[in-house]
Amino acid sequence: MKGPAIFLAQFAGDQAPFNSLDSIAKWASDLGYKAVQIPTWDSRLIDLEKAAESKGYCDELKGTLANHGIEISELSTHLQGQLVAVHPAYEELFKGFAPEGLNKYQRNDWAIDQMKKAGTASMNLGLDVHATFSGGYVWPYFYAWPQRPVGFVDKAFAELAKKWQPILNHFDQCGVDACYEIHPGEDLHDGISFERFYEATGKHNRVKMLYDPSHFVLQQLDYLTYIDHYHDFIKMFHVKDAEFNPTGKSGVYGGFQEWIDRPGRFRSIGDGQVDFQSIFSKLTQYGFDGWAVLEWECCIKSPEQGASEGAQYINEFIIQTTNKSFDDFAGSAISDEDFNNILGLD
Q1: Model pTM?
Q2: How many of the other CB atoms lie within 10 Å of CB of 128?
Q3: Measured CA distances, 147 to 88, 141, 191 (Å)
Q4: What is the structure's pLDDT at 333?
């Protein structure tokens, strides 16, 4: 596993050092980070159009980061991916993710084009994994009341797969995996829903996962056993903490409260309930060789403190894998004849 890396979406801003790729890279490097995950919708950090069109521009980006001992872990299109498939209930809330003046059809066309450009840009940057959201059609109906009509969910996932198919095919041409963050609010929000989508795409070889245990804490899902089930699909990892403290008044659904008052809330790494030591062990056991990327989202601690502490935590959790067995000292070479004797074979 590589790291530490940091997702820049929650840090980018109009004030230095967060207002340019050069200055934010120096800031991240000074904290001990070795890579940055770049949100492609933030023009202060990257011009996605240029990155898709120009290998030279991509080399300049990498050079800017290299000056500070930093590289790109992945690109992200969380906002654009959200607009690939949008239920009407969310059209108004999500329209700010796209340029002003577009209707819902134009926003959808823009999002699909952005996704394809991101695949090309990733290829131009020498990256083979990409972070995104799935969007979706049936999240408003996640609770089964009123009763969902027979075939309703299957139809929704078939339509979602239909939307993503040309994007996935383009990613395949670029040699890039589409890593969907398994996230409430998306139709891909747990293991079963991911499987539905994977099947609906015809088991497309570019359908992969971004694993973030914080979202599973809030759902009360077993995030360690999840790795046992899906380690072959997990190609990206967000290191984000969370806690779940139910009360006599509120539980998983949160009562429409603000984040700081919810039983389930995101915390800065080390302040929540996620067992990162076991997560890093399991991912390493299964050969995960991607980046451990800090994502700061906390309703209490400042992003600056969270980023500073996060680099230290990740460094402590990363495991240097062994190339020898602990009991090699007691081993000895034996012949085929010895094997036969041990097994009682003539």
Answers
A1: 0.95
A2: 15
A3: 20, 9, 22
A4: 81
Which residues make beta-bridge pairs with 179?
131, 208
Closest CA to 182 of 219, 154, 153: 219
CA pair distance 39, 78, nearest whole angstrom: 8
Average pLDDT over residues 313-326: 85
CATH label of the domain that carries residue 73: 3.20.20.150
- Residue 165 tokens read as 């198919």
Local confidence band at 288 (pLDDT 50, 70, 90 cut-offs):
very high
User: In angstroms, rounded to a whole number, what is the distance separating the alpha carbons of residues 152 and 319?
Assistant: 45
Average model confidence (pLDDT) across the chain: 96
In 279-313, which positions are buried (b, 16+ CB within 10 angstroms) versus exposed (e)? bbebbbeeebebbbbbbbbbeeeebeebbebbbeb
Encoding tokens for residue 33?
A: 């980070």
| Six-digit token string for 278 | 């076991």
Range of the domain at 159: 2-343
Domain count, the chain: 1
332 pLDDT above the threshold of 90: no
